[in-house]
Write a structure and sequence with these properties.
Radius of gyration of chain B: 27 Å
CATH topology of the largest domain in chain A: Rossmann fold
Number of helices of chain A: 23
Number of strands of chain B: 4
Largest sheet of chain A: 7 strands, mixed
CATH class of the largest domain in chain A: Alpha Beta
CATH architecture of the largest domain in chain A: 3-Layer(aba) Sandwich
Number of domains of chain B: 3
Distance between the termini of chain B: 83 Å
Oligomer: heterodimer
């Protein structure tokens, strides 16, 4: 949905801006900068710093641009003498207690205060110099807080509250107030998840990366845009490097979010368990070898197995890498046994999507737009800051909830999202999802939900009354009706399906029916970075590139688990107990599975990779590697291409072929959706924990990283 | 407003602002917006500086700026009201403020601008003030009947903190507050005439008036 545009004037020039946006944000969309120290894009403005004061025609006094919303015909003056004087006054006051350490400050160059002081031509404060001599708070890992530099804008406090970490707050009042944790404890003892959103929010250098000091000034850093592939959110990041070493990682968007792995996990590039050279098995040990030898052993093993060889593409491979594995399996090795890890925990959801939307419908899971949602139904998912799972989705849902959207949580336990004031929790007995959703749908139809999809009559027959659903699922009937009312009233609802139900086809179908009832967007919270893209590239046992039909159907993931002649695993998989006579693992870090392998091929890790991925939101992101791979490691597509020529000289392919094929493998338009009625009865509870899947997926990456140590320390504190 | 009453407008304005700033109750400052929370703090500090005799003409301009911009840029009515209090003080008692800047508190309240002294004519040497002085700033000997030769009572200015306890306790009103004439910050350089003769060393006017040139002549090897 596009927002309604309105005509308004900034400084006498007319512009078209979205309606109901704050003036600061609206100005930014058309290139008019309104100075501000405390505003964060798309967060509710508080009007604390008073730097964004503007004068509006018809209003007597200046108003703050961060709390005033755009309206048709508004005439805004951003540079009148009166507001300029207020800005100068505020900057002058702030400079009176901010140390003028710009000569050595690591933030110099991107510091907001520095910029405005220069813009407003203030050299030194005309007010008395004040200093508080706060001790530097460097007791926590990753993040330091130096309150001496704090300008009390409160961005960090608000960004922390917004995403429900609630770690930072102001202590004291007046000018002596101080950003601090509860009881001034170190961050890791006060429930901090070290997402570092406060670092990005801080306009000065109060909150900084711990090892930022003396590691390059802003203008020394080479910046590379990349994408974090540690989980399904696929956050865009900016990697800053100095002398070939990564110094820091930030979000790309102003109000973006990245988690602790994305921001601080880059130390895993050089950790001890990193695979830098190809390894081959000699007796019980893995010993380093050369690429040519490793490829030869791997190729021989795969050739020997022939059609009995299995291929597993991890959901965190890029499109190009997945396409390379697919071609390697089907075209070169002549095996139909290829699958992705996503089938293991979201098999039910995949088949449900296929039966509702047709084969191409797997990609439909990405049509949801959380940014405009006014009701979010979260089924079987627990995106959470505290549990470190899919935090980015959690933040996005929370932002909508903060803006007034209702969040309906269908879960067996009280999740973190359910604690939000706008959340409606339907806490059901395990395995009763179909029954509860049937009751919810019948209530929503009674509330007046009119779907456009076919098959409503058949669906109505399968539905059960609210009371029946209530007794079956253990949720009170009033609560179901309340949720149904909120859902029926919504204009842009989104249904989020998590791994709690994605293994069960019935529950997934019922969730899709619920989405169809209001033509809602479906968002599958798959924990792997490129789960949708890998499937689109044809890494499924019965579908080829672009979800096309193939001649021969091979073994799926669960069949391959029990034992194969030879197994080629690209990327990290959550299982460590895959049985195979001959095992080739292509990985960046030595995982428990890789330790069992016959050949280990070193792959590029986190920010060393380049390619295209499709995030869970359906946006396609193309990114270049930000760093050269460590040691002899190579990009996954390169490895598969080399391996293909080692297996068969005639059929071998190059990276160019793969890239072209990956571009071509576009999903066709999904078929018109129709309801698929499901019997509303309690089924066998099948639930996969996203947390444990993510932990297993990132186990290799995290094992030796400092991130892991922090999380372990945190758990210890939580248990205490 | 403030519970302490004060006749000196400078002092009473400071007390009002400080009460607003420090009051932890609901009526106090919310400390949400920058102009109010830092501006009022700075205003208090500036007035404090003036009251301790460190005032300068630029402080008046700064106070005027704070009053105007907190009024324009503040968030709530409470903050703007206190900007109004400051502005009203600046318009109504400008002369008083300027007098304070030049070091005179005509209400004799601003401790930094006054000295306490003991009027020897009124003093009966009852020793009450010396007993009550917590800073041991008063010295003297209690008078005993039919004896003489007592040291008179006086206040040692270095020790006096202008707490006012001695004024309260004196039955005769002998402790008086005297405006302190402030020392000037920038002293005019004292111009002293070194020599009135011209560069050549010849004494032009009076004979042998120049000791420097006398010396030069004695040292000079040429002569």
């Amino acid at each position: 949905m596009t927002k309604k545009m309105v005509n308004m004037e900034f400084d006498g020039k007319s512009y078209q801006v979205p309606e109901g946006m704050t003036l600061v944000d609206a100005g930014a969309t058309v290139g008019v900068h309104i100075p501000n120290l405390c505003h964060i894009k798309e967060l509710r403005g508080v009007g604390a710093c008073r730097m964004c004061m503007v004068e509006i025609e018809g209003l007597k006094t200046p108003v703050t641009g961060c709390t005033t919303r755009t309206k048709e015909g508004m005439k805004v003056q951003t540079k009148t003498p009166k507001v300029e004087e207020i800005r100068k006054f505020v900057t002058d006051l702030v400079l009176s207690f901010h140390p003028l350490d710009c000569m050595t400050c690591p933030k110099a160059g991107t510091c907001d205060l520095q910029r405005y002081a220069a813009d407003l031509k203030i050299q030194e404060s005309s007010f008395g110099r004040k200093s508080f001599n706060y001790p530097l708070n460097d007791r926590s890992p990753f993040i330091t807080i130096d309150n001496n530099y704090c300008i009390l804008c409160g961005r960090c406090v608000r960004v922390c509250k917004e995403q429900n970490t609630n770690v930072l707050d102001f202590m004291g009042r007046g000018i002596t107030s101080k950003v601090s944790t509860a009881l001034d404890r170190p961050l890791h003892e006060s429930g901090c998840t070290f997402c570092g959103s406060c670092i990005d929010a801080c306009p000065v250098n109060t909150i900084m990366e711990r090892d930022r000091w003396q590691h390059g000034r802003e203008w020394d850093l080479a910046k590379f845009e990349s994408v974090c592939t540690a989980c399904g959110s696929g956050c865009s990041v900016v990697v800053s490097k100095k002398d070939g070493k990564i110094v820091k990682v930030n979000t790309k968007e102003d109000n973006g979010y990245i988690c602790v792995i994305g921001r601080f996990g880059f130390d895993a590039h050089r950790s001890a368990n990193r695979v830098t050279t190809p390894l081959k098995r000699e007796g019980k040990k893995l010993v380093p070898t050369t690429w040519s030898e490793a490829l030869k052993i791997a190729a021989d093993g795969l050739k020997k197995a022939g059609a009995n060889a299995g291929f597993i593409a991890s959901g965190s491979l890029t499109n190009e890498e997945a396409m390379a594995v697919q071609s390697l399996a089907r075209d070169v090795a002549g095996s139909a046994n290829i699958d992705t890890t996503t089938s293991a925990y979201a098999g039910g959801l995949i088949s449900a999507l296929r039966s509702v939307y047709g084969d191409a419908g797997i990609g439909i899971a990405s049509q949801a737009d959380l940014s405009t949602a006014d009701a979010v139904v979260v089924i079987g998912a627990d995106p959470s800051q505290k549990k470190q799972t899919m935090q980015e989705a959690d933040v996005m849902i929370r932002r909508r909830a903060q803006a007034g959207a209702k969040v309906i949580v269908v879960s067996t336990e009280k999740t973190d999202l359910a604690h939000h004031a706008n959340a409606i929790l339907l806490q059901l007995k395990a395995g009763t999802d179909t029954a509860l959703l049937a009751g919810l749908m019948s209530a929503a139809i009674a509330e007046g939900a009119v779907p456009s999809a076919k098959g409503l009559d058949a669906l109505k027959k399968s539905l059960i009354a609210v009371d029946a659903a209530a007794s079956a699922s253990g949720v009170s009937a009033e609560q179901i009706t309340l949720a149904a009312k909120a859902y029926a009233a919504a204009k842009n609802p989104v249904v989020v399906i998590g791994t709690g139900i994605s293994a069960s086809e019935e529950a997934s179908l019922q969730a899709l029916n619920l989405a169809l009832l209001k033509d809602a967007g479906v968002l599958a919270l798959l924990p792997e970075a490129n789960a949708l893209g890998v499937m689109q590239m044809g890494c499924l046992s019965d579908l080829g590139p672009g979800f096309t039909k193939i001649k021969k159907t091979g073994k799926g993931y669960s069949d391959m688990r029990s034992g194969m002649k030879a197994l080629f695993i690209a990327g990290t998989v959550p299982d460590a107990d895959l049985k195979s006579d001959f095992l080739v693992v292509q990985t960046s870090h030595l995982t428990p599975l890789a330790e069992k392998a016959d050949v280990v091929l070193p792959m590029a890790a986190l920010y060393e990779r380049g390619g295209t991925i499709v995030t869970i939101y359906g946006s396609q992101k193309t990114f270049a590697p930000a760093q050269d791979p460590e040691g002899d490691a190579m990009d996954g597509a390169d490895i598969a291409a080399e391996l293909s020529s080692a297996v068969s000289k005639a059929k071998g392919f190059t990276v160019k072929d793969v890239t072209a094929a990956a571009k071509k493998a576009k999903a066709a338009k999904p078929a018109a959706a129709a309801f698929k009625p499901v019997a509303a009865k309690a089924g066998k509870p099948v639930s996969e924990s996203t947390t444990s899947i993510l932990m297993a997926l990132n186990a290799g990456l995290m094992a030796q990283s400092a991130v892991k140590k922090v999380l372990v320390a945190q758990e210890a504190v939580a248990k205490r | 407003m403030s519970k302490q009453e004060s006749k000196c407008p400078v002092n009473s304005t400071r007390l009002k602002l400080a009460f607003f700033y420090n009051d932890p109750s609901k009526d106090g400052m919310c400390s949400k917006c920058h102009p109010c929370k830092i501006g009022v703090f700075d205003a208090i500090k500036i007035i404090e500086a003036i009251q301790t005799g460190q005032g300068a003409p630029r402080h008046v301009a700064l106070l005027e700026r704070i009053a105007r911009d907190v009024k324009d840029g503040g968030m709530c009515k409470k903050g703007k009201d206190h900007a109004d209090i400051l502005a009203a003080f600046l318009t109504q008692h400008k002369d008083d403020l300027l007098r304070h800047v030049s070091g005179i508190c005509s209400h004799r309240e601003c401790a930094g601008l006054v000295t306490y002294e003991i009027d020897a004519d009124k003093c009966t040497m009852c020793d009450k003030c010396r007993e009550v002085c917590k800073d041991f700033a008063i010295e003297g000997q209690k008078a005993v009947a039919f004896k003489g030769g007592f040291t008179p009572y006086r206040i040692r200015q270095r020790r006096c903190t202008h707490c006012g306890e001695c004024i309260k306790v004196c039955p005769e009103g002998a402790v008086i507050v005297v405006e302190k004439a402030r020392e000037q910050d920038v002293k005019e350089p004292v111009r002293t005439l070194v020599c009135s003769c011209d560069v050549s060393g010849k004494v032009t006017g009076k004979e042998a008036a120049c000791s420097i040139h006398d010396m030069a002549e004695t040292i000079s090897p040429g002569k």
